[in-house]
Write a structure and sequence with these properties.
This protein is an all-alpha fold. Helices cover about 75% and strands about 0% of the residues. Keywords: ANK repeat, Glycoprotein, Ion channel, Ion transport, Membrane, Repeat, Transmembrane, Transmembrane helix, Transport.
Amino acid sequence: MYLSTLIFILPYLTNQELYGDVRVQWTFGTLALLLCYSNWCLSLRRITSLSLYITMYIEVLQTFVRVILIFAVLLLGYALVFYVLLKEEDTFSSVWVSMAKIFVMLLGEVDYTDILSDNVVNSAKVPGTSNLYVPLPVLSYILFILFVLSVSIVLMNLLVGLAVGDIDSIQKTATLLNLIDQALLVDSIRKRYPTWMLRLTYKEHLEFKLNQNTTVKRYGSLK
């Protein structure tokens, strides 16, 4: 975050074009903005009333990343398959565009009519050429249905089930997690204090004397 911010503001501090392309500067500036607000959101974990929700979000996000990494090979396979079969479509015109479209389809936005149905029924061709948008309609239909069943339904329901399980376990240990976060915060603050100040306030042990200076005893002494 700090490095991205520094890269973004350096041209303004020096009044010079340092990177040759202004898009480089604004790329890091946009990244710094996102990281800044993400860090601000995560810092809300220190607030007791909000820590549960932030913790749930982090745990669900970690679970999602682990599952997606496991099934990344499957998603890449579908992206390559649809790129080969439907590369005349704008949404599958390259491997990277196809991969992005697969992630969108993962959420349920399959665009069945625009991608397959209309082009197959109308035998639509690429303007100015004799190439069909869907040259292998039967195979495309089979793989499209297979993708919907195996990814849009099965994988998404798996993610939802894991997320619900994570939330249930977090709610059971929310108090403990909150205390751990507060202890880590206190420890990080303590490490930032100067050494001489820590030496002045350091005590090898503390003595707690029960039933002394309590409200009840003070009230009794007044009588």
